[in-house]
Structure formats: structure tokens, C-alpha cells
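Narrative of activities, Objective 1.

The group set out to show that a structural description can be obtained from nothing but a protein's sequence at a throughput compatible with the screening campaign. Below is one input-output pair from the validation batch, recorded exactly as produced.
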Amino acid sequence: MAGYLLDVTSTLICAHAGQAQPAPPAPRVQLGGNPVVTQSAIYTVAGCALTGSPNPPCATAQFVTAATRVMSQGQPVLLQDSQSVCTPTGTPLTIVVTQVRVKGT
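Output recorded for this entry:
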């Protein structure tokens, strides 16, 4: 895997157009003044359009793949091609926009 690193300003959406935000960031490593996001961060999803009792909306997401060579505080950082899974739907997040200066593997 190789791709641009994600930071807190990266735009991610669930499969149903809900906005995803990370918490907490890894403040020790910054890209353009913005903290990078590590694999341990849980994303909260707001505004997921999926509704109904048999199909609850996306609430959180966790990344299952990340960088293999770039770490922050001992945790792998997230890359533009990292894979995620939303809970409870099992769908992935889509990375729409990220910084384009720093790449990692």
C-alpha cells in the first residue's frame, strides 16, 4: 500500500453520504499544521442517509488497514488507500479529499 497520509482535515463519507470525523488525532505528527490520523482512531459518522429499523444508519467506522512503514506514537498512520468498515452496516468509508504533499507506505 502506498498513498497520501490522512490528517484531521481529510474528508471522508460513508456509503450513504454521512460525514466521518476522527477522534482522537495523533498530535505529535503534523502535516501542514494538522495532526495525522492513526489506525487506532475511531471515526464517528453523522448524517448517514440510511434509515429504518432493519437497516440502522452508520454510526462509527474503524480502519482495518494502514501504513506498514510510517508510524505516529507507535501506531500506523492512515493512508489514502487504507480500508475501513462502518458499524453496524459493514460498508466502507470513502476518502474524498486529503492532503497531497506527504506519501507513505
